[in-house]
Each structure stands twice: as C-alpha cells, then as structure tokens.
C-alpha cells in the first residue's frame, strides 16, 4: 500500500502520497482493502498531520493484522514530481518490525527510482511467493534472515528496569494476570520501543498478539482493543490518562510513573512473593555481565517457579479436559494473603477456575 502527497492523477497498490499543495492521496493498493482499514492507516501515517514530525517507521496491530509504515521525503532529483513525501504500508500476519522495516525501505528506494508501483509489486510478490527479492541498486531482502524470536528479543528489558526499578514487578504482575496495560509518551518511537519489549517479561507465553503499539483514541480502534481480554496498548495522546475504562495499569513513560487503577488494586495487591520477583528482576538487570536475553531467561525461570507453586493446587477437571484450581487446597496451605490472592488470580488468568 502506498500513501503519497500529490495531485489526483494517480493509479492504485498500498501507497499514500503528499503533494506540493499539501494534499494527501491514497495512490495504490494491492490487494484491495476496506474503507475502515484505509482510514486507520491514513491516521497512522504521519502525512495527514499538519506540521507534525516525520516518523520514518511505525508499526502496530489492528484486529489481528499487523501494519508497518515507512515514510520518506522525496528529494528534488527524484522522478516523482510534485510529490513531497510518500508512505509505503505493508500489512502482515506476523510481528517482525525489523523485517518489514528492511523490506519497506527497499520498496521505497524502488518507488523513488521508478515512480511507479510496478517494480515494487514484482518485489512484493517475489517475497510473498519465494521469500526473497534481489535488486542490484536497491539492495536484496531475504525473509528467512528475520527470525521471529529475534524480533521478540529486540527490545531492552534492562532499559525498562533502569527506568522503573522495583516497580517493574507491577508490569510483570499485570502481564502474568493478563491485565490491560496502557502506555503513554508523546513520542511514538518511545512508545513503540517500550511496549514491544513488555511481552518478554512473560517469555513462557511468547505471545506478542497482546501488543497494540500504536493506538488512537478513535471509537473503532478502541472497540477493537476492548475485545481483547488483556493487552499492552501504546498512545501518544495524554487524554488516554483520563480513560480509566481502558486500563488496569497506566504507564506514563514521560514522567516514569506507573499507576494501578482502583478496580485492579485487589488483584494486583503486592506481597512477599512480588518483592522476591522484583528483587530478582532488578538484580539480574543491573548485572553488567548479563545480556537482555539472559535477564529474560532469569525472569522466565522465576515465573516457572511460580507456576510450580500453583501446580499442587490444581487437579484434572471433571470432564478431564484441563487442569483446574482446587481453591480449598490453596486456602489450606495458608500462604500470606497477598500470595494466595495472586495465585488465585493467576489461576483465573490461566482459565483454571472451575466454572
């Protein structure tokens, strides 16, 4: 998909252009898309914002589809006349920002050179069918160079811990309990970097579908978001802080503040177990010898230990389908109240409660 800014004499794939008159046009799209998705992508690409900063690359998720948008300024030497900027948008089923940033950069270079979607389409179809596109002057791209696990490990847990210290355990607890986390920062790049890293705190799930790294306070987007049981949602509009219906935990990244919403406080009560987890996270992250992936491994081992604590209080359900919590057995164990409360809510998050 290409978005560009220019007068309205163009054809159509996934592209948007901005012209010298400041008009933004949807130029081409392959395959076709819905009006709703088109409006969403126009909102995400920075061309429609007056006098706003250019964001070279943004990504996010909407109704189980990922979108990746690269935007470039058109140099005077380009074949594209009367066009000041354009965006190339790819939608995909997988989370892999590095992969799609690399691919859209190559497509941008092709568009700048040829001024027509045809060459881009050839490369797009080549990657779709063979996983590779090669071009002398624009660089080559190989899908298998971009492993999903690499994308999961691309963010820095150590950076998060250096910003929030012991409070990182609030984020870990919220993720364990599949709560709704909203993250605010005025800069989209900061929001994306922070939010994409958070699912690694619950590495045992390896679930990045909970990530919605770029959300607007738009009715359709919020409706889609609220259909998800637990999520991490990134916003650049501070107005989201007043929308307590959207979050259990609110992270103001700009002010380094984490707030637990009143309705989530009972499930998120912190105790001895949380203190242990928090100390482990901080100690591991502050060890200069340890890489981010080793810190993730340490947290993952501690998380597995918590599930091991829960195991003796689970039993096979009556229909033999899954393991469910024996709440009486948990109560008899006489854990500290906060630990018992957390294990109960964890069992609920893992769908282990008897219906």
From TrEMBL:
Cited InterPro entries: FAM45, Tripartite_DENN
Gene Ontology MF annotations: guanyl-nucleotide exchange factor activity; small GTPase binding
Coiled coil (UniProt feature): none
Keyword flag Ribosomal protein: no
Keyword annotations of the record: Endosome, Guanine-nucleotide releasing factor
Main subcellular localisation: other
Pfam families cross-referenced by the UniProt entry: SPA
GO biological process: protein transport; regulation of early endosome to late endosome transport
UDENN domain segment(s): 1-355
Superkingdom field: Eukaryota
Signal sequence coordinates: none
Localisation per UniProt entry: Late endosome
GO cellular component, one term: late endosome
Sequence similarity: Belongs to the DENND10 family.
Name used for this protein in its record: UDENN domain-containing protein
């Amino acid at each position: 998909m290409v978005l560009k800014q220019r007068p309205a004499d163009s054809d159509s794939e996934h592209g948007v252009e901005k012209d010298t008159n400041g008009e933004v046009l949807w130029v081409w799209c392959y395959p076709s898309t819905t009006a709703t998705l088109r409006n969403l992508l126009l909102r995400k690409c920075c061309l429609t914002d007056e006098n706003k900063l250019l964001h070279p690359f943004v990504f996010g998720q909407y109704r189980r589809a990922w979108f990746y948008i690269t935007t470039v300024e058109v140099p005077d030497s380009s074949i594209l006349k009367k066009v000041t900027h354009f965006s190339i948008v790819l939608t995909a089923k997988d989370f892999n920002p590095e992969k799609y940033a690399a691919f859209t950069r190559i497509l941008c270079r092709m568009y700048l050179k040829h001024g027509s979607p045809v060459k881009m389409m050839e490369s797009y179809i080549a990657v779709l069918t063979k996983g590779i596109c090669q071009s002398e002057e624009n660089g080559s791209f190989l899908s298998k160079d971009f492993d999903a696990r690499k994308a999961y490990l691309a963010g820095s847990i150590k950076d998060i811990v250096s910003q929030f210290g012991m409070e990182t355990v609030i984020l870990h607890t919220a993720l364990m309990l599949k709560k709704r986390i909203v993250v605010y920062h005025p800069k989209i790049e900061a929001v994306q970097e922070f939010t994409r890293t958070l699912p690694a705190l619950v590495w045992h799930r390896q679930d990045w579908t909970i990530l919605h790294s770029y959300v607007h306070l738009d009715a359709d987007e919020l409706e889609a978001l609220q259909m998800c049981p637990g999520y991490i949602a990134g916003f650049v509009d501070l107005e989201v802080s007043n929308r307590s219906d959207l979050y259990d935990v609110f992270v103001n990244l700009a002010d380094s503040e984490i707030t637990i919403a009143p309705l989530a406080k009972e499930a998120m009560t912190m105790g001895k177990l949380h203190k242990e987890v928090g100390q482990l996270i901080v100690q591991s992250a502050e060890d200069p010898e340890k890489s981010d992936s080793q810190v993730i491994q340490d947290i993952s081992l501690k998380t597995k230990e918590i599930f091991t604590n829960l195991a003796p209080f689970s039993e096979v359900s009556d229909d033999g389908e899954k393991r469910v919590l024996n709440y009486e057995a948990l109560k008899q164990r006489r854990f500290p109240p906060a630990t018992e409360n957390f294990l109960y809510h964890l069992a609920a998050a893992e769908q282990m409660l008897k219906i």
